[in-house]
UniProtKB/TrEMBL annotation:
The chain crosses the membrane at residues 27-47, 67-87, 94-114, 120-141, 153-174, 180-201, 290-310, 325-347, 354-372, 378-400, 412-432, 444-464. It comes from Urochloa decumbens. This is Major facilitator superfamily (MFS) profile domain-containing protein. Pfam families: Sugar_tr. It is found in: Membrane. It is a multi-pass membrane protein. The keyword Transmembrane helix applies.
Length: 472
């Protein structure tokens, strides 16, 4: 804490959250925003079950079936940019409402699609909403003290895996009896539940301070203090950072604070947008931004490539009974929990760079033997271990990605990184399926390993280790 020009005591949001700790408020927030993450995962995973049924009912081609998935990812590319810019300009709540409404309402209407073209258009709109879902972990992060931020964001990522499991169970129960339309309708219901209770979640105090709304930020912090039963520091909250840590590059930390100040001083919407882009393209942040893009692309590419590779080696596509697809999704989803647990344990102990780089390179190592022909049992074990590692890497990415940017451009920076990742989701199935259809498993493994190896190297080149660092 410090005094301002008039001698009055002031404190930052970082200092307030450290004093208030992780308590009842953050636990309830974790449950609420985590439910949003579950809802988004369910909307993505239902594509695994709906496509074959739509193909059979309407007699569309295999390419048309795959297009149902592709248009969702295409929408996510645009939605990631729109959601990021919107949440930085209008607030985290606005970003949340965008992703909940734009994915929930069209998702429900998909159940009443009269034809293939209508379903395709609605799934594209759903993708727009899903693209902005990165605001959920970022919103949560801005309420968590720096001391245990990494572990709790890793725990937050578990809700995604929970969503994939719930969707598989729901599909298993609904599809054989009621069909794909009921699955689409029921899968959208979590979004409507979130909208009903959305008014109880306050705006981020960090965002409010970055916009000069000190009195509103104070009210939010006082609410957290009451729920956590802990006192706020004496004085008045301020958006000005009071200190930086010695083990970080001062030039990078300085540009973060200068960028924040420039954004605060400029109240013009047009100028704010311009400065937002200037922030993460600045000389001191461009290196981190480009490296972050590479790691995002490789992680998304490897994750979805693994999903297709597991399906192929398990002979799911060519030889499966009615329940085999649901069992396969369930088992592979459970494989993600060890990676999330490992990330939660390590990230606040050894730092995000070692954890992220180590998990990416471990995934690379587990995949490498698959370039040769192995017994199916051994292949599945290696693939599950690889998926464990890549999901752990995702958990670390959700911690680090928002931390390198200041509050005023945080979601925009994360949104553009997410766009690059979504490109990886589009490239992965096209590359993997094309090579596997030509019996080129070796080439599939080599391409995925190359992407992962480059990402692992990139982790050593980031200029900042953000373990325990206060965000601004």
């Amino acid at each position: 804490m410090a005094g301002d020009a008039s001698g009055a005591e002031t404190y930052t949001t970082n200092e307030a959250l450290s004093r208030l700790g992780f308590g009842r408020f953050q636990a309830l927030l974790l449950g609420f925003l985590g439910t949003g993450w579950v809802a988004e995962a369910m909307e993505v995973m239902l594509l695994s079950f709906v496509g074959p049924s739509v193909k059979e009912e309407w007699g569309v081609s295999g390419g048309a079936e795959g297009l149902i998935t592709s248009v969702v990812f295409a929408g996510m590319l645009i939605g990631a940019c729109v959601g990021g810019l919107g949440s930085d300009r209008y607030g985290r709540r606005a970003g949340f409402l965008f992703t909940a409404i734009v994915s929930g309402v069209p998702g429900f209407l998909c159940a009443f699609s009269p034809n293939y073209a209508t379903l395709l258009a609605l799934r594209f709109v759903v993708g727009l909403g899903l693209g902005g879902s990165h605001v959920l972990p970022t919103w949560f992060l801005e309420f968590v003290p720096a001391e245990n931020r990494g572990s709790w964001i890793a725990a937050f990522t578990c809700f995604w895996t929970l969503g994939t499991i719930l969707e598989a169970l729901l599909a298993w129960a609904v599809m054989p009896i009621l069909g794909w339309r009921w699955l689409l309708a029921l899968s959208s219901t979590p979004c409507f539940i979130l909208l009903i209770f959305s008014s109880v979640v306050p705006e981020s105090p960090r965002y409010l301070c970055s916009r000069g709304k000190i009195s509103e930020a104070t009210l939010v912090l006082e609410r957290i203090a009451r729920m956590n039963n802990r006192p706020l520091p004496p004085g008045t909250v301020t958006s000005e950072a009071k200190r930086t840590d010695d083990n970080y590059d001062p030039s990078v930390t300085t540009v973060l604070l200068m960028t924040e100040d420039r954004l605060d001083e400029d109240t013009s919407t047009k100028s704010n947008s311009k400065n937002t882009f200037q922030a993460f393209w600045s000389r001191d942040l461009i290196r981190s931004t480009l490296l972050l893009w590479l790691v995002h692309f490789a992680s998304y590419f490897a994750y979805y490539g693994l999903v297709y590779l597991i399906s192929e080696l398990s002979s799911v596509r060519s030889q499966q009974k009615d329940s085999s697809l649901y069992i396969n999704v369930l088992v592979t989803s459970f494989a993600e929990f060890p990676g999330l647990l490992l990330a939660a344990i390590l990230i606040d102990r050894i730092g995000w760079r070692v954890t992220l780089g180590g998990m990416i390179l471990l995934c690379c190592a587990f995949l490498a033997p698959l370039a040769t022909q192995l017994r199916e049992g051994l292949s599945i074990i290696l693939l599950f271990c690889a998926r464990t590692c890549v999901m752990g890497a995702f958990a670390v990415l959700h911690v680090y990605s928002p931390e390198i940017y200041p509050t005023s451009c945080r979601n925009t920076g994360v949104g553009f990184a997410s766009v690059i990742g979504r490109i990886g989701t589009i490239v992965a199935p096209l590359t993997t399926t094309a090579l596997l259809e030509n019996h080129r498993q070796k080439e599939v493994v080599l391409v995925m390993d190359l992407a992962l190896f480059l990402a692992g190297v990139a982790c050593t080149l980031f200029p900042l280790e953000t373990k325990g660092r206060e965000i601004h």
